[in-house]
Design brief:
Layout (H helix, E strand, L loop, with lengths): L1 E10 L2 E11 L4 E5 L6 H8 L7 E6 L2 E2 L5 H7 L1 E4 L11 H8 L6 H14 L1 H5 L10 H13 L5 E5 L7 H18 L2 E6 L2 H7 L2 E6 L2 E7 H6 L1 H8 L7
Helix pairs in contact: 3-6
């Protein structure tokens, strides 16, 4: 579904991503893990067209998308849940969900999808008219995912969904992510610093370090890798 070849991202003279290549098959969940500054978010922003890549190719369902505008990606079936959640704090939960469906023109379908995401996130249904800015961090992360789902994506890009959350919410968020992939067949690219949770959830993973992929394998293989354990599991990066 997604093929990334020799992707490079630079900020001025600083190379943040140094020619990485990876792929995601339809129905897969793939994790891209690494420490802060490894290039994870830069990679995702380039894929989501929030910044221009310095080089390389990104193909989605056989189509080159590296020159499309962000709103065009939504039309192609790609949705991003950004780092930091990015909810609209002065809008209600329902209004945030409607913003996720801004490009759609099927009111009945939108209404049905609101009911659907409320079934996935009962906590949001209980607070449907509450302002998003008054929600807890975990509830805002649920809303950010629910809002992305309103675009009916085929590929969901998740940027650090566990960042800043309490352990209870981290467990709940990853439970939801696994359900979306397993029960709804959604293809997911998961960018995470929390290697333990990410690799347990993902079919496959890539380890990014200093802008380069240094390891790849199944989630189980990477969890058992001495290099991954030393760098990301035993050192506390994924202890939460």
């Amino acid at each position: 579904m997604l093929e990334v070849n020799d992707l490079r991202v630079a900020y001025g003279g600083i190379q943040a991503v140094r020619g990485i290549s990876f792929h995601i098959a339809q129905g897969e969940m793939v994790a891209l893990i690494g420490a802060n500054g490894a290039g994870k978010t830069s990679t995702l922003k380039a894929l989501a067209r929030l910044l221009n890549a310095a080089g390389g190719s990104v193909r989605y369902c056989g189509k080159e998308i590296s020159t499309l505008a962000p709103h065009q990606l939504v039309g192609e079936g790609i949705a991003l849940v950004p780092e930091g959640r990015g909810v609209f704090p002065r809008m209600s939960i329902v209004e945030n969900l409607l913003m996720g469906a801004y490009s759609r023109h099927d009111p009945k379908g939108v209404e049905a999808d609101i009911d659907h995401v409320f079934s996935l996130f009962p906590r949001l249904k209980e607070r449907a008219q509450q302002l998003a800015g008054t929600l807890s961090g975990g509830e805002q992360q649920m809303l950010a995912i629910a809002r992305a789902l309103m675009a009916r994506p085929k590929l969901l890009l998740l940027d650090e969904p566990s960042l800043g959350l309490a352990p209870l919410y981290i467990k709940k968020i990853f439970q939801i992510i696994r359900e979306l992939n397993r029960d709804h067949g959604m293809t997911i690219l998961l960018i995470e610093q929390n290697a333990h949770h990410a690799l347990r959830a993902a079919h496959r993973g890539y380890v990014l370090q200093h802008g380069q992929i240094i390891l790849s394998g199944t989630g189980k293989e990477l969890l058992a890798s001495p290099e991954v354990r030393a760098a990301y599991l035993e050192g506390g990066h994924a202890a939460a």
